[in-house]
Amino acid sequence: MNKKEVIIVFVLGFLALAQVSFFSHFRLFVFLPEYINLVSAAVFIIAIFEKRRHRLAWVAAFWGGIFLNFYSQFFFGFWVICLLATVGIIKFLIKKYVSIPSFW
Amino acid sequence: MLWKKFEVLLYNQFMRKFYPGSLAVIAFAGAGAIMVAINIPSVSAALKNAAYLAVEPLQRSTWQAGAQLYAAVGPVFKSSEIGRENERLREQIAKLIGEKVAIEDLKKENELLRQSLHLELNAEFDLKLANIVGKDVLSDILLLDQGSRNMIEIGMPVITSQRGLVGKITKVYPNFSEVTLISEKDFSFDVKVGDDKVDGLVKGKGGFVSFVDLVPKDMQINQNDAVYTSGLGGIFPAGLVVGMIDRVNKNDVETFQSAAIIPAFNANTGRQVFIASGKYPLGVNTVAVPGKSNKNE
């Protein structure tokens, strides 16, 4: 893992911790489904805005999924699979149909 | 066709730098095997317990900071409800003042009866104080800092200091336990409503919301009626306060009426709860009714 990936893993760990403790008291994304939380939102954003050939979104999805699994009733790996699949779909759609500026 | 493209994309994005050729298949198989191994209950419990232990001090303080902030700013976002709540509380105060006088008399009578029957005034519950340290990502499940090492077991009821019902212990780790709140989806148990002890069933809706259902339409339930556990089904002991009736939903089409509940436990502001470990009398009546039997219902 490179430096950027290590930083993103720490940030996602912190976001997961904040989500299940501090932000449990507040509904952050009121009009969105419940599975949209700080970690999944961060993964979506990275997947959308990173350069096509970069793999940061995959790393973020993997580690974000692991962190969320610790605070989930679903089987271990559920969030990892969900987020990896989401990143795959986002990347596929962007590659195939969308052209937007990337900031990473 | 679509899958093929997705496969190529996956390979380009993730596999190319790590695994040449067919090794990708082996990697997937390995990941699957690891996932199965991690999902063995004892392994996942040990993993989760270790992770919770590592972050518990930080998590507990962030939970408490969140609860504090919610208590301070939460009402600002609910200004429309404050007026209604104020009115309801005024009505309650007037009602309670009247009841207090009656209770004082009953208390004296009860003490005399207890003395005459040589009843022990044992504590009804063996209570263990637990701090809330976190909440499940999707469910109404809270993480508490008491586990099997503190003699906590699955099925124990969790209450507040005012006998308000919080939920039930559903998972226990060595140092932590999970309490499923009464507002969790598909959670249900029998209750009594109001002074007339109308039967009903509390159901969870998720998002800290629960309601009373299956109340016969011909029975009268009103706003501010107390909802408390009946002890039926053995899930919870009788007499624990679930909350108060908020709005009654009654229509001609439905066979039963339902009602929203203002819960006795507010998960947004709660920091500590009690786990009723050890002995607690299932089906005990908390309110002594003079002239009536006090047996389990």
Largest interface: A-B, 31 and 42 residues
- Write down the Rg of chain B: 25 Å
The number of E-state strands of chain B comes to 12
Distance between the termini of chain B: 65 Å
Oligomer: heterodimer
Class by helix and strand content of chain A? mainly alpha
Write a structural description.
The complex is a heterodimer of chains A (104) and B (297). Chain A has a domain at 35-99. Helix content of chain A is 62%, strand content 0%. Chain A is mostly helical and 104 residues long. Chain A is built from four helices and no strands. Chain B has four helices and twelve strands. A six-stranded antiparallel barrel of chain B has the order 1-2-5-4-3-12. Classes of the chains: A mainly alpha (104), B alpha+beta (297). The interface between A and B is large, with 31 and 42 residues.
List the helices and strands and how they pair.
The complex is a heterodimer of chains A (104) and B (297).
Chain A: H1 3-20, H2 38-49, H3 56-69, H4 78-97
Chain B: H1 2-15, H2 23-38, H3 41-73, H4 79-117, E1 126-135, E2 141-144, E3 157-159, E4 165-172, E5 177-181, E6 188-193, E7 198-206, E8 209-216, E9 226-229, E10 241-249, E11 256-263, E12 272-277
Antiparallel strand pairs in B: 1-2, 1-12, 2-5, 3-4, 3-12, 4-5, 6-7, 6-9, 7-8, 8-11, 9-10, 10-11
What attributes characterize this protein structure?
heterodimer; A: 104 residues; mainly alpha; 4 helices; B: 297 residues; alpha+beta; 6-stranded antiparallel β-barrel; 12 strands; 34% helix; 27% strand; disordered C terminus
